[in-house]
## 1
Amino acid sequence: MRLTVLGGAGGFPPAAGACSGYLIEHDGFRLLVDPGYAIVPRLLGIVAAGAIDAVLVSHGHPDHVADLNPLLRARLMSDDEAQRLPAYALPDALGPVLALDQIRAMKVACEVREFGAGDAFPIGPFAIQSRPLPHSIPNVGVRISASGASITYTGDAGPSDDLVELADGTDLLLAEATYAESVPSGNVGVLNSALEVGRQAHRAGAARLMLTHLVPGTDPEASRAAASRSFADWIAVATPGTIVEL
């Protein structure tokens, strides 16, 4: 498997940056995970819009799904006969973003495939396992596996034993770490810190840890240092253009 980070900012895209967006490739299949704000320009620098085979969405917040709209526009406006794009998401997660556009063809450009948190299902060559993880709206963590390798992605999630179970022995834990040391009181239980994510990665026995969803302006080295206090192995911060081969 090959992971390419398109963006890793939380909340809003910083200058020259982008929010959550991850391209995962295996055996010629391209899966786009969480098309958040500003990821489409970066994606189009790598592949054509029509080359995406499926989309997988963790939850409905716009910093994780807003760029589904320009992705569908790019597909339609580049190819009148573009194939419908399968988009896998929790119930109702895609409704607001799909309602943005009044172009009639957009209504059939996306084939929504809803699943329940806890379901397991295939997407192309990937085996997907999912778990509900705590956030302010329904959110799902996913373990994406192929040919003996796995990436476990949290979406946005407060600390949870369910994540530790889902990520057991994973090759890469791609984890929301909005804050470095501690979560402000208003977001306790629904967002995470790099310090806590390091503990969860250690408990899960993950081989590698990538911190993502950092609030713009956060010092990535401070986040990395916080996670390293409890996780002694490979740690990276998700920045556009980062590539990991598994």
## 2
Amino acid sequence: MTTTSSPSGSARPQSGGGDFQPDPQRWRAFSVCLVVGFMSLLDVSIVNVALPSIQKSLNASSSELQWVVSGYALTFGLVLVAAGRLGDVRGRRTMFLIGLVVFVVASAACGFATGPLFLVVARLVQGVGGGILNPQNSGFVQELFRGQERGKAFGLLGATIGLSTAVGPLAGGLLIQLFGTDSGWRAVFFVNVPIGIVAFVLALRWLPKSSGRRPSASLDPVGVVLLGVAVVLLLLPLVQERSWTGPTKWLLIPAGLVVLAGFVLWEIRYQRSGREPMVLLDLFKTPSYAFGTAIGLVYFAGFTAIFFILALYLQNGSHYSALQAGLAVTPFALGSAAAAALGGRVVHRFGRPLVAVGLAMVIVGLLVTDLVLSRVSGSSVGWAVALPLLFTGIGSGIVISPNITLTLSQVPVERAGSAGGVLQTGQRLGSAVGIAAVGSIFFNRLANSHGDWQQAIAGALRLCDVLVALALLVALADLRWGARHRTPREEPARTTA
């Protein structure tokens, strides 16, 4: 496969590669990846609506409930890059199956939990399983597909990411409605078990056995530890922002940055010694990867926080049930899923400008949603914001999957797992930063206005808009860089991927 640099400064994958023989079962294999990816990412948000039921059933404290949510995100982000690296070296199919077993067993343990500590530990292990699984998905896309087929596959992967994030509250609300308050929260976890067992059987049959195997490559254990410590130090104060009072917790962030700098220096030294580092830092010299990773980090800070604050506003401010709150954000999910699938198909034609258009649509959609919420309240809120959220979702869909495609377009196949892990780690960090910052604005506004939910949601949505606007500035910088560094007369720069 070859990739060409577009006039916009973004790489556009081109079909090619004379000796590449497509796997006849590639779409079947990819369908397993999509199902498992959806299941693991759904668990990031589905638990939110079940927290009141968990608190009542297990007599859990607010701090323990916070760990039920944030513990999963923490361990998920912690293992992403290392798991992607292991998939690249020891085999993606092997790591996929290991991650799936860990995830399913931990899901069953969550459902059988007899106390809050049991549930928190099971959620931490479940996050490890999800973190092992997800970088294998992007690695399989790089390995199984070329040219426009790869764009289509990334489009479906982007649709899965967007849909799983947005539909979580609806799925949780439905399960609690069906099984009741006492058993509904357990069903949220148990539903993963039959799906995971079927996926395991199909993965054994359809996933390529030799994918990513490079037994001679080193695993870089020191790099694994340094990056793991850095991610924990950066994420922990963010995911615990509401539980840990006082400013001391923020000292962990500069400490995390110091460890991250140490990781970079180690990787440079490790590569100079002739060995293969965990993260090939030269990837960031490729504009498509560097700009795309930055866009993902900043955009997910604004994107993920939208559902967090809307769920709080609809359930606590407008007295919606968990199911009604989930239904209210469904237009966003539908628009995002449809547009992501389409965006993956047309990204070859439009390149990075497509991402910029999507970001602009999200900004406009959030502004209109803010305007509507300032004028409408009560039970009619859900209907009033349906169209703005649909428009916002369409914009989000043509950001996520095209950005993934463009970001990984020039990454060598043998590096696909670790590169995808770095991209997703950035997204998880962005999500944690966004929820902490937007949540802080939301609760401060609510307290200062003595319970005025409209003021709180307005301030939070505007911060989400600012974060999305920052992502748009990064996308425009990518376009400007491309315009400066390539003229129409230049031959396209080709990179074997």
